[in-house]
Design a protein that fits this description.
Oligomer: single chain
Strand order of the largest sheet: 1-3-2-6-7
Number of strands: 7
Largest sheet: 5 strands, mixed
Number of helices: 6
Distance between the termini: 45 Å
């Protein structure tokens, strides 16, 4: 009986330490939430086709310590740099007028990426409590590197 209880304890204990999902939202949602409860915005700028972005998602953002820190301290925004969304930021509406839905791989860059002066992918932008860019970093980061950047 003790072995059964120990086994159940270990199983349930291991389930609770699995990677926690980051609670992603749009930039508009994050900016609206900032007005009610001010905290910085963590914005990942990525592309669908770039392997470094995929590795960053799998190896870094799904790390339990990273996802927990982001969920506790930031509003998290995931922004596709070549997507077709309309984004309202700083009184301007940004879109991707040359987006081709039939294109595989690279697509045209979203206007917001030009406005933010994105230099590469993945890029992380930290927007302060007023929605202004406070810090940024570009390129793949290990969980440890990202945690140092965020602290």
């Amino acid at each position: 009986m003790k072995k059964l209880l120990l086994a159940l304890f270990l199983i349930f204990g291991s389930l609770s330490i699995q990677a926690q999902e980051i609670r992603w939202m749009s930039l508009e949602e994050a900016l609206a939430k900032q007005k009610k409860n001010p905290k910085p915005i963590f914005m990942e700028v990525y592309t669908d086709w770039y392997s470094q972005c995929k590795m960053f998602e799998t190896n870094t953002l799904q790390n339990p310590e990273v996802s927990d820190l982001i969920n506790r301290n930031y509003y998290a925004v995931k922004f596709n740099a070549e997507g077709n969304s309309v984004v309202n930021y700083k009184g301007t509406s940004f879109n991707n007028p040359n987006f081709d839905p039939n294109r595989k791989g690279r697509n045209s860059a979203h206007q917001l990426t030009s406005f933010l002066k994105v230099e590469g992918y993945p890029s992380i932008y930290i927007l302060n409590r007023n929605g202004e860019v406070q810090e940024k970093t570009t390129g793949f980061k290990t969980p440890e590197e990202l945690l140092r950047f965020l602290r």
